[in-house]
Request: fold
Amino acid sequence: MATLAFAVNGLANFQSMLPAASALAKRHIAYGAKPEHYPVVGAALLWTLEKGLGDAWTAEAAGAWAAAYGALSSLMIEQAYRCPHVGEIPG
Reply:
């Protein structure tokens, strides 16, 4: 939950999240996470939010959460699996 709170609070300044997201991506490698796991986790997260929020789960909320998770997971996959030096920010 702390990671979700960090992600939500960091959306206004996505660049500020890059170092922490890179470190999180490295930890996920150690846990055995693979790129194909991220969409499954994202679907489970969205389902959990939908069930937990009930009527407060709107199409707008679903779209925002899907976009946020998509951006964060794409960044983490890039950092963990595609960068020649995991942990470095490309560019």
Notes: Residues 86-91 have pLDDT under 50 and may be disordered. DSSP finds four helices and no strands in the chain. The two ends are 30 Å apart (CA to CA). Residues 42 and 80 are 17 Å apart (CA to CA).
